[in-house]
Design goal:
Number of strands: 6
Number of helices: 4
Strand order of the largest sheet: 1-2-3-6
Structural class: alpha+beta
Radius of gyration: 27 Å
Order of helices and strands: HHHHEEEEEE
Shape: rod-shaped
Length: about 150
């Protein structure tokens, strides 16, 4: 009979309290990981949109080189220019959030319509100045440290 008691006392396994503690700790770790994953996805989307902004700026600068330093007043000005008719940068540019390519999906004029999430826009206020904006998943201008992120030549 004493052997039976000793076997019971040294039996291997987890008590209910130990098991619940492990479950709670795992739950906390999983919730932290999910939050970090969501933030990483948002940062990646923002970086991809900013990359599109820089590519779009390069196209605008190429346009100006071919037009004696004058910048396009609108996206249509660029699209009507024969050199850009088959531009792989413009027509291959995809909106990182919607995955849609091209005009009115990945880029458009600033005042054309309600901004699409992830879109890059051009605002040409004169033949010598331009401003490039982009919009996030909430259709608000992308910001860095509380300020609109704008690419411009002026």
């Amino acid at each position: 009979m004493t052997q039976n008691r000793h076997r019971h006392r040294f039996q291997k396994g987890l008590t209910l309290i130990e098991f619940m503690t492990v479950v709670v700790i795992l739950g906390i770790l999983v919730s932290i990981g999910v939050v970090q994953l969501i933030h990483a996805k948002e940062r990646a989307s923002k970086a991809s949109i900013q990359s599109n902004m820089h590519a779009f700026q390069n196209v605008i600068e190429l346009y100006a080189v071919d037009h004696g330093g004058l910048y396009p007043l609108s996206v249509d000005n660029m699209l009507n220019y024969a050199e850009f008719a088959n531009s792989t940068v413009l027509f291959g540019m995809r909106n990182p959030l919607t995955r849609q390519p091209g005009h009115n999906q990945a880029y458009q004029d600033e005042g054309a319509a309600l901004p699409v999430q992830g879109i890059v826009t051009l605002d040409g206020d004169s033949l010598s100045r331009y401003f490039i904006y982009a919009y996030d998943k909430d259709q608000l201008r992308i910001q860095i440290k509380g300020q609109d992120f704008i690419l411009s030549n002026g």
